[in-house]
Design goal:
Structural class: alpha/beta
Low-confidence stretches: 1-25
Number of strands: 5
Signal peptide: 1-24
Distance between the termini: 57 Å
Mean pLDDT: 86
Number of helices: 5
InterPro entries: DsrEFH-like
Organism: Bradyrhizobium japonicum
Oligomer: single chain
Protein name: Intracellular sulfur oxidation DsrE/DsrF family protein
Keywords: Signal
């Protein structure tokens, strides 16, 4: 009887530790079975030059490697989130990269903060992939073989 209670307690403890992580991971990995390179580009800066640099890096990676051989994910959070607003002047570039297989993740926590502070939730490019925690998504990707790059 005591052994069963110990096993049950261990199982409950394991579930308690697993639950926060499971809820933080929002989207599955990209379906790119032939990808030889996996890169996550972090964008947490509202500077337009840095935003342009991230887009340039993603574009250059697509040119350097066959799009089927590279998985690129751009995770935006904090001030970098402006890049994915519907009124962004770089919207066409973002949508072009999405059409070529680059995934853009937008942090819902950042959107919630903006809404709480301004009273209005900003609209973002519909093709962007919402994730609850931007940094959590970066960690998830890094733990699954992605190289984190912060241009």
């Amino acid at each position: 009887m005591m052994r069963w209670q110990i096993h049950r307690a261990m199982l409950l403890a394991a579930l308690a530790f697993a639950t926060p992580w499971a809820s933080a991971q929002q989207v599955p990995l990209q379906d790119k079975p032939f990808a030889e390179h996996k890169i996550v580009l972090q964008l947490s800066d509202g500077d337009v030059k840095k935003q342009a640099l991230v887009l340039s890096v993603a574009n250059n990676l697509l040119k350097a490697y066959d799009p089927d051989k590279v998985a690129i994910e751009v995770v935006v959070f904090g001030p970098g989130i402006d890049l994915l607003f519907t009124g962004s002047e770089r919207r066409k570039q973002v949508e072009s990269l999405i059409a070529q297989g680059v995934r853009f993740d937008i942090c819902l926590n950042t959107l919630d903060t903006i809404e709480r502070e301004s009273g209005k939730r900003p609209e973002f490019i519909p093709a962007a992939t919402p994730v609850q925690v931007g940094v959590g998504q970066i960690l998830f990707l890094a733990e699954n073989g992605y190289t984190v790059v912060r241009p």
